[in-house]
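seq:
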Amino acid sequence: MKKIAYALSLSAALSLSSVSVGFAEQAPLSASTQKSINLNEKEAESIKQAFTRIGVNPETQLKLINKIESGQLLDSINPDKQHLGITSKSVEETDVTYTENIITTYPDGSLKKTSITRAKLTAPTYPISTMGSGVKPGQTTCGSGYCSIQNALVYSETGVWTAQFSADYTLVDGDNNDYISDVSDYQISTSLFTSYSEPNLRIEKRNESLEGPAKASLTFILKTLSGSITQSVLFYVQNNSTYVS
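struct:
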């Protein structure tokens, strides 16, 4: 238990938890599929608010809105631009919760914010939610050689879409013993000029093993002015920690 509790308390330094967004392979979007639009003042303001929430500065917001109106994909959701992102990490703590944030900045100035929030080991059961509905109590409980985390909040936001789900997982001393026991309560929200379909939340691999980590995913099809893109929030558990490939 000491080994796992130590990892929990130093999760920032050890990158205990992180969340990222992956993309399924697909054909490149051609210029002929792009459609331009003119956003009205209310629509533009709504997008600005989403950008502000994840930290995009006002000058860059205008450039990104122009890019959206021309029918182009923002780098933050463009599969061909993902390798160009530069990440930075931060930690937020309250008396009862611990959150690790990762901000990825792309060449066009668009951002992606990902995070995972869990209840602290010393905290009582505590409601954890970001998108405002489907609130469930989060709790971390440790015993002899294990720590179980209930309803950790896995969260990702790009300014174009927001997605989250709850995950229950257990870290166990020794090799190849960690596992994901449940994922639930997914929520997806998209901006005015996009929509989504085919959401799928599932545990792809329940137990850590010699073949690799335990893995859960939330995937969906994002429909944009330039075409449809498969996107996913991926969650892994391995070696007494959580991470993203």
